[in-house]
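lol forgot to send this yesterday, sorry. C-alpha coordinates for the thing we talked abt
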Protein backbone atom coordinates (compact mmCIF):
# COMPACT_ATOMS: atom_id res chain seq x y z
CA UNK A 1 0.00 0.00 0.00
CA UNK A 2 1.76 3.17 -1.19
CA UNK A 3 0.64 6.15 0.84
CA UNK A 4 1.58 9.04 3.04
CA UNK A 5 0.90 8.23 6.67
CA UNK A 6 0.09 11.32 8.67
CA UNK A 7 -1.29 12.40 12.02
CA UNK A 8 -4.09 14.96 12.00
CA UNK A 9 -5.25 16.83 15.14
CA UNK A 10 -9.05 16.44 15.37
CA UNK A 11 -11.21 17.49 18.33
CA UNK A 12 -8.32 17.34 20.80
CA UNK A 13 -6.97 13.93 19.66
CA UNK A 14 -4.36 12.88 17.15
CA UNK A 15 -5.83 10.82 14.29
CA UNK A 16 -3.70 8.49 12.18
CA UNK A 17 -4.65 8.72 8.51
CA UNK A 18 -3.34 7.55 5.16
CA UNK A 19 -3.41 9.65 1.96
CA UNK A 20 -2.56 8.96 -1.66
CA UNK A 21 -3.59 9.84 -5.20
CA UNK A 22 -4.91 13.04 -6.70
CA UNK A 23 -8.20 14.40 -7.97
CA UNK A 24 -11.63 14.38 -6.37
CA UNK A 25 -11.69 13.66 -2.64
CA UNK A 26 -12.60 10.15 -1.48
CA UNK A 27 -12.70 9.28 2.23
CA UNK A 28 -12.63 5.62 3.26
CA UNK A 29 -14.14 4.55 6.58
CA UNK A 30 -13.30 1.14 8.02
CA UNK A 31 -15.49 -1.22 10.03
CA UNK A 32 -15.43 -1.65 13.77
CA UNK A 33 -14.09 -4.76 15.39
CA UNK A 34 -12.75 -3.46 18.68
CA UNK A 35 -12.58 -6.88 20.31
CA UNK A 36 -11.40 -8.46 17.07
CA UNK A 37 -8.26 -6.34 16.94
CA UNK A 38 -9.19 -4.02 14.08
CA UNK A 39 -6.11 -2.76 12.30
CA UNK A 40 -8.13 0.27 11.27
CA UNK A 41 -8.00 1.88 7.86
CA UNK A 42 -4.89 0.18 6.56
CA UNK A 43 -6.17 -3.34 7.22
CA UNK A 44 -9.63 -2.62 5.80
CA UNK A 45 -8.65 -0.79 2.62
CA UNK A 46 -5.22 -2.14 1.65
CA UNK A 47 -6.65 -4.62 -0.91
CA UNK A 48 -8.20 -1.81 -3.01
CA UNK A 49 -5.95 1.13 -2.11
CA UNK A 50 -3.94 1.21 -5.33
CA UNK A 51 -7.03 1.02 -7.54
CA UNK A 52 -8.88 3.81 -5.70
CA UNK A 53 -5.79 6.03 -5.37
CA UNK A 54 -5.37 5.78 -9.14
CA UNK A 55 -8.71 7.58 -9.57
CA UNK A 56 -9.00 10.02 -6.65
CA UNK A 57 -7.32 11.76 -3.71
CA UNK A 58 -7.92 9.05 -1.11
CA UNK A 59 -7.89 9.68 2.63
CA UNK A 60 -8.43 6.84 5.10
CA UNK A 61 -8.47 7.72 8.81
CA UNK A 62 -8.32 5.31 11.70
CA UNK A 63 -11.61 5.98 13.48
CA UNK A 64 -11.49 6.99 17.16
CA UNK A 65 -10.61 3.94 19.26
CA UNK A 66 -9.26 1.93 16.32
CA UNK A 67 -5.84 1.40 14.76
CA UNK A 68 -3.53 4.27 15.71
CA UNK A 69 -6.22 6.70 16.91
CA UNK A 70 -7.18 6.97 20.60
CA UNK A 71 -10.89 7.05 21.48
CA UNK A 72 -10.78 10.70 22.57
CA UNK A 73 -14.15 12.22 23.42
CA UNK A 74 -16.06 10.80 20.43
CA UNK A 75 -19.41 9.29 21.40
CA UNK A 76 -19.37 5.77 19.85
CA UNK A 77 -22.66 6.12 17.96
CA UNK A 78 -23.32 6.81 14.28
CA UNK A 79 -24.23 10.39 15.15
CA UNK A 80 -21.10 10.77 17.30
CA UNK A 81 -18.83 9.35 14.61
CA UNK A 82 -20.50 11.50 11.93
CA UNK A 83 -19.82 14.61 14.05
CA UNK A 84 -16.21 13.44 14.39
CA UNK A 85 -16.05 12.95 10.60
CA UNK A 86 -17.18 16.56 10.08
CA UNK A 87 -14.31 17.72 12.31
CA UNK A 88 -11.90 15.40 10.46
CA UNK A 89 -12.97 16.79 7.06
CA UNK A 90 -12.48 20.32 8.40
CA UNK A 91 -9.02 19.46 9.76
CA UNK A 92 -8.01 18.01 6.38
CA UNK A 93 -9.49 20.98 4.47
CA UNK A 94 -11.85 18.67 2.57
CA UNK A 95 -14.93 20.66 1.57
CA UNK A 96 -16.76 17.88 -0.31
CA UNK A 97 -16.01 14.18 -0.68
CA UNK A 98 -17.31 10.81 -1.74
CA UNK A 99 -17.43 8.36 1.16
CA UNK A 100 -17.00 4.60 1.22
CA UNK A 101 -17.52 2.56 4.35
CA UNK A 102 -17.30 -1.03 5.45
CA UNK A 103 -19.84 -2.14 8.07
CA UNK A 104 -19.67 0.52 10.83
CA UNK A 105 -17.94 2.84 8.35
CA UNK A 106 -20.92 2.45 5.98
CA UNK A 107 -23.31 3.48 8.72
CA UNK A 108 -21.15 6.51 9.51
CA UNK A 109 -21.05 7.44 5.81
CA UNK A 110 -24.84 7.31 5.53
CA UNK A 111 -25.31 9.31 8.75
CA UNK A 112 -22.84 11.90 7.44
CA UNK A 113 -24.75 12.11 4.13
CA UNK A 114 -27.92 12.85 6.10
CA UNK A 115 -26.29 15.34 8.47
CA UNK A 116 -24.18 17.26 5.93
CA UNK A 117 -25.54 16.64 2.42
CA UNK A 118 -23.70 19.67 1.00
CA UNK A 119 -20.35 18.00 1.85
CA UNK A 120 -21.01 14.43 0.69
CA UNK A 121 -21.14 13.77 -3.07
CA UNK A 122 -21.89 10.03 -3.00
CA UNK A 123 -21.73 7.04 -0.66
CA UNK A 124 -20.74 3.40 -1.15
CA UNK A 125 -21.51 0.89 1.58
CA UNK A 126 -19.66 -2.42 1.59
CA UNK A 127 -21.10 -5.23 3.65
CA UNK A 128 -24.31 -5.53 5.58
CA UNK A 129 -26.66 -2.55 5.63
CA UNK A 130 -29.08 -2.33 8.53
CA UNK A 131 -30.12 1.29 8.04
CA UNK A 132 -32.81 2.78 5.83
CA UNK A 133 -31.75 5.11 3.06
CA UNK A 134 -34.69 7.52 3.32
CA UNK A 135 -33.52 11.11 3.15
CA UNK A 136 -30.04 10.50 1.72
CA UNK A 137 -29.75 13.05 -1.09
CA UNK A 138 -26.61 11.76 -2.85
CA UNK A 139 -26.19 8.59 -4.94
CA UNK A 140 -25.72 5.45 -2.80
CA UNK A 141 -24.20 2.15 -3.90
CA UNK A 142 -24.68 -0.89 -1.65
CA UNK A 143 -22.31 -3.78 -2.28
CA UNK A 144 -22.69 -7.13 -0.56
CA UNK A 145 -19.04 -8.12 -0.87
CA UNK A 146 -15.83 -7.01 0.77
CA UNK A 147 -14.06 -4.09 -0.97
CA UNK A 148 -11.37 -6.37 -2.42
CA UNK A 149 -14.04 -8.37 -4.31
CA UNK A 150 -15.69 -5.33 -5.89
CA UNK A 151 -12.75 -2.95 -6.33
CA UNK A 152 -13.40 -1.94 -9.94
CA UNK A 153 -17.12 -1.34 -9.36
CA UNK A 154 -16.30 0.67 -6.25
CA UNK A 155 -13.76 2.82 -8.12
CA UNK A 156 -16.12 3.39 -11.06
CA UNK A 157 -18.91 4.57 -8.78
CA UNK A 158 -16.91 6.64 -6.28
CA UNK A 159 -14.44 8.28 -8.61
CA UNK A 160 -16.78 9.67 -11.25
CA UNK A 161 -17.68 13.34 -11.37
CA UNK A 162 -20.92 12.97 -13.29
CA UNK A 163 -24.23 12.84 -11.49
CA UNK A 164 -26.07 9.53 -11.06
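and heres what i got for the seq, position by position
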Amino acid sequence: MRHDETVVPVAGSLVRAYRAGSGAELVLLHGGRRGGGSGGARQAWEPVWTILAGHARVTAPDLPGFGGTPPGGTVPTLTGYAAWLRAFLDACAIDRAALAGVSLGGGIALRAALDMPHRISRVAVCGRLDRRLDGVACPVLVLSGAPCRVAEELAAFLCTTRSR
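The chain has a mean pLDDT of 85. anyway ping me if u want another try
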